[in-house]
Amino acid sequence: MANRWGIPKEVEAFVKQRDTSCVYCGQKFLEHSESRKQKASWEHIVNDIRINGIDNISLCCMSCNDSKGAKLLEDWLKSDYCKQNNINRNSVAQVVKAAIKNPPKLK
Ligand SMILES: [Zn+2]
Fold first, then answer.
1. Distance 45 CA to ligand 1 centre (A)
2. How many other CB atoms are there within 10 angstroms of residue 3's CB atom?
3. How far is the centre of ligand 1, averaged over its atoms, from the C-alpha of 46 (Å)?
């Protein structure tokens, strides 16, 4: 069983519990917010939709998701967006730090 983004149900449930704020900028999610900064979106830390374990699936705000797009995480962290929002390898959530150290791979 997978959701419409191809994410296994148990991974979806786990990540929803873990990531209550953006894994990149730390903004808390609000379910009915109109702000793109407060809306959660599914994020593959390594941009490969086949890697869909809890080490690669996370929730980030739509603002970060739009900015990151298809960029490599390491490249995106050097972008103006990240500089302006004080997002760096030390400020990101634990799951992202782990992915920087040891990028999730296809099993
Ligand atoms: Zn964010």
1. 13
2. 11
3. 16
Backbone angles phi, psi at 40, to 5 degrees: -80, 145
Dist. CA 25 → ligand 1 center (Å): 4
Q: How many CB atoms lie within 10 A of CB 4?
A: 6
Task: Read off the pTM.
Answer: 0.92
Q: How far is CA 107 from CA 45, 52, 79, 99, in A?
A: 15, 10, 30, 15
Cα–ligand 1 centroid distance for 4 (angstroms): 22
Ligand 1 centroid–CA 98 distance in Å is 18
Q: One digit per residue, pLDDT tens: the chain, 107 residues?
A: 677 778 999 999 999 999 999 999 999 999 887 888 899 999 999 999 899 999 999 999 999 999 999 999 999 999 999 999 999 999 999 999 999 999 999 87
Span from the CA of 94 to the centroid of ligand 1 (angstroms):
14
